[in-house]
Amino acid sequence: MHWHCTAELRIVISTNAPKKVYKTAMKDMAARDKLLEDLLALNTDLKEDVVEKAYNYAKEKHEGQTRASGEPYYTHPVEVAMILAEMGMDTPTIVTAILHDTVEDTDATEEDLKREFSEEVAKLVAGVTKLTRIESQTVEGKQAENFRKLVLAMSEDIRVLLVKLADRVHNMRTLGHFKDRPDKQKRISRETLEIFAPLAERIGIHKIKEELEDLAFTYMNPDARETISKRLSYLREEGADTTKDVITELEKVMKEAGIKCQINGREKTRYSIWRKMQRKNILFEQLSDIMAFRVVVDNMETCYLVLGIVHAKYPTVPGRFKDYISTPKPNGYRSIHTTVIGPGGHRVEIQIRTSTMHEEADLGLAAHWAYKRDGSSDRATAEAKHYRWLRELVEIMEGESGTFEEKLENTKLELFQDHVFAFTPRGDLIELPAGATPIDFAYAVHSGVGNKCVGAKINGRITPLNTKLQNGDQVDIITAKTQNPSPTWERFVVTGKARSHIRRFIRQQQRDEYITLGRAMLQKIFKSEGYDFSEKAVNGVADKFKENNADDVFAGVGSGNIVARDVFKAIFPSHNTEPVRPSLEEVGEYTSNKKPHNKNSNAPMPIVGLIPGMAMHFARCCHPLPGDRIVGIVTTGKGVTIHTIDCDTLENFADTPERWLDVSWGEGPDAPEARIGRLSVTIMNEPGALGTLSTVIGKSGGNITNLKITSRSTDFWDMLIDVYVSDTKHLNNVIAALRATPQIISVERARGR
Fold it and tell me: Residue 104 catalytic?
């Protein structure tokens, strides 16, 4: 194999250059040659001259730049290219990986790449490149706008996402070099868990998804990861023979049946174990499927033959059978999963699939390039348009209303969920997040169907709109032309698309009401001062209030953000008549729409749905936290008491529905203030147990404010613990961390005590 020398290298070799320069040049050539050899070994269809040109171009443009590790910067895009080559990607994708940081971090432009390489490569690099200038003030806003750009780019060419995922994998592998920046490590890890790992799962690349999750877990919760690692090591030592015995017996059973197959055992990842402990509220010892055994056969018919043999040989565990071959996951994943009481009486999860399915399970969409290496942008665009969830992300990010941060949150809802599968009356399969309702289903079919939904039939029976769908449900949506989205729907929908459309309608409806109210308030002031009302005059002063037009000014006046008399003075600056004190009738009409006096005028209302200024406090029986579904109870002389929706105390108010208020947590730019979450904990009665408990809570960012021992025995102590946390998610993280601790027997959120 022969590679061409660069001009720079030829000069060095042909002159009497210093020995150090000569050695550096030779080392660089060797590194380049090894890269190209490795890339061709992984994918023999690569165009070596184009890849070599990209390598030289990137090295020249990144000259003098280094990474946190001290290595030359160009080594990063090279490693990204290697990750994609391992996945069998085509030449334009490999070249894009090598060049992906040139536009963002050097003086190279998109036009330069188009001229030097191709329009296809230039577009791919532009799709991967972050925005360099964003007007948003917040980090979240920048993240949301960058994600919006990524969503739009990958909706045009799915290879943009593949390069971005490979880029994130290498960045996570080298994140340890930022030891002096733990805040940066956590921020990048959180973004990885919330966005990039779910994206990898959505296109079926489980190999990348699992690596991203485990690397992020290292920085997000190192103590929990270490605890699970130690327990897995112990299980490996104790259960090595058991795993070997299961494989040996399964091989024997298959051989007796004349089935040709490969069987192996695979340990679940530490992060997936952690997530399962959180999701199912169970301890490590209660997990029954830490190991999964895979039976890989030659064809699909043999998969079902193997399933019959396994079920005939071993008792099955009810509710643990899933056929993803007849009904594949939306990301293309195909396999049969079943759990049986296997050899030695152990619960064993068995996955049955063909060798093709097995490769697709790891590489997902990228496996298609291993079979069809045409590398066409048309096919990449077709792949992108194949994904309904991707079209819905575009719809959310391109929506007219809502902040960037809110849109980003809705996309996380759309991505980071387990799934249920339901059918339309015609038999079309709709994939939804776990906990989805008929409203979510209606919006998944079409936004117009969701907006006009008035009822639903599940499996032929009329059911409430907040009913949670189960796998296999057939859903028939009933619509009416006069129907509009109800604000109460937002309390139980779980998809980002449904929430986005409902909020959009509510905002528009609320804006219309504010416009009507604001116009009426201004008309009354004009009349009281002896002037004819003029909408044109209001439009003329809109700029002074940083609004676009008269309707925006009316909305500001109606919502209390703009004082009506200030608008009047802006129109008639020479009018000096003292303002007339409003009548009691006017006070009653307007007070509920004005914000209360507050030293911090930008501070958000903590609870949405209350009249500003109304006395409000949080119930001590259930200790509501941001993230909980809540309800307000009006109490004479005390104002409103906020309870969680599942608080036992609410039974006392069942006969007085007029006292119930529909409320929710407000939103604002500031972090929520710490609130008390109450835990019911059972710990082992042994030295150091209480200290371990308090240490785990402290490391999880919680602060114990009160502790009460409710019962004691020789072996265990039961206690109630009040912990300061920011919201429900924070409390759940504390609970999960405690459950991963050996001295903790059980921990639950205490309610109604």
Answer: yes
